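Journal club prep — side note

Before the paper discussion, L.F. wants everyone to see what a predicted structure for a comparable chain looks like in token form. Sequence:
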Amino acid sequence: MFEWLGEVRQLIDLGWLPALEPLTFPGKVDGPSAAREAARWVREHLGLGVGPIDTMMSVCERAGQFLLVTELTGDGASLTDDGLAVAVVNSAADPGRRRATAAHELGHLVLGDEYSTDLGVAASREDRERAIDAFAAELLLPVSVVSESWPQVEALGWAPQPDLTSVTVPPSFAHAVMEAWRSDQITSDRAVELLHGRITIDDLPPRDDAELAP
């Protein structure tokens, strides 16, 4: 997690990656119902309507959270540090779980730190996680779609889609890496490392990086 945070900061500091402003729900969150309301607010704010989400990578990025799909011991995690929001999702999980985890970690961002919402310190961690799970479920599949379309939901394009599989980093981050590489600000090895499996060293034209910083 902290390594990913550092990678994002490096590209921002180099001037190739725009800093994003994290999206936070302005209302009160005191339980699952309010969390679902927050998810509907996110959909409206991002212009998603009630349609299916193609990829959580894009949604997270538009909400101000840089998402990485990588090998982890758990499902995922998220962190906001000095206004910079990042999250990681386990690449070994099945696509549906990766998608749900990404939505859950976005919920941590949108609903705020676990002690900063109206759930407060009196609520158990289980209660807070239940609220965030409600946010994730509503974000991925709004209740209104189910109630209006059941049992033909899949026929309307809501069948589970493969997500967060080949795309491991946000497109803007990948672009920033390549721009930094082209401008000789990072080595070829570092570019490959930052892209987390998107390319290999053989995909880059050979060059002498001896005088470059890593």
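L.F.'s comment for the group: Residues 22-156 form a domain with the Arc Repressor Mutant, subunit A fold (CATH 1.10.10.2910). Keep this in mind when we get to the figures.
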